[in-house]
Amino acid sequence: MSTDTPAVLRARGLRVEFGTTVALDDLDLSMSGHRIQVLLGPNGAGKTTLLRCLTGLLDPTSGQVELFGRSPARALAAGRVGVMPQRTAAWSGIRPVELLRYLADLHAHPLPVDDLAAELGIDDFARTPYRRLSGGQQQALNLAGAIIGRPELVLLDEPTAGMDVHLRRRVFGLIRQLRDSGVSVLLTTHDMDEAARLADRITIIDRGRVSAEGTLAELTGGSGDLEEVFVSLTTPGGVG
Ligand SMILES: Nc1ncnc2c1ncn2[C@@H]1O[C@H](COP(=O)(O)OP(=O)(O)OP(=O)(O)O)[C@@H](O)[C@H]1O
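^ ABC-2 type transport system ATP-binding protein, sequence as received from the core. Prediction below:
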């Protein structure tokens, strides 16, 4: 019997066309083991398009995606994947803790709602309707919703966008805790400092292709100057 365990994530030859725009161009990406992998790329490079393919929201023009050896739809349906999109349709009048309890009830072994709400500072605005939350507060709640079901892989599109330093620190701590407890985390950001501090591995995407992949030390030759490497490897404006 084979003892091979399937990769957490494997995308092969992904191509996505929107009319004449090639958003992903023969892109390969894989993750195995639990780690924090950060996707960097200029505006329009294809990061969100890639995450949409990984979550089954978008069918690539060609290429394949597998999460835990299955289609994204099946991996999501099995509760193995948590997703935090860049924007969510507003949950409108629902209050944060009601929303978390509702989402927790969808899962067999959810995280304790009160602990998660305390960890992300959600209990400070627990009774404010979703539509009245600040951008950063909505992000905190979206992140909580992505992880409440104890997924094995979380896909986070710019999770700390709009967060102040206090909340960002809490989120960094939480993401590291997830990794240390065996969860694989793939996230996008435009913040080089965030990438340098959080990532076990960094993938730089430019014009729909992977232009570099490695640890911070590998990518920067030990200098740690990720911004310099990013600027030298990417094209302003992303897709040409
Ligand atoms: N639904 C769509 N229809 C047409 N073009 C699209 C669509 N979604 C994305 N694109 C185009 O595909 C390219 C990649 O966009 P994508 O949103 O994936 O980039 P990104 O790296 O996430 O950018 P940002 O950092 O600005 O969020 C861009 O040129 C964008 O205009």
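The beta strands are 9-18, 21-31, 36-40, 62-67, 81-84, 153-157, 184-188, 201-206, 209-214.
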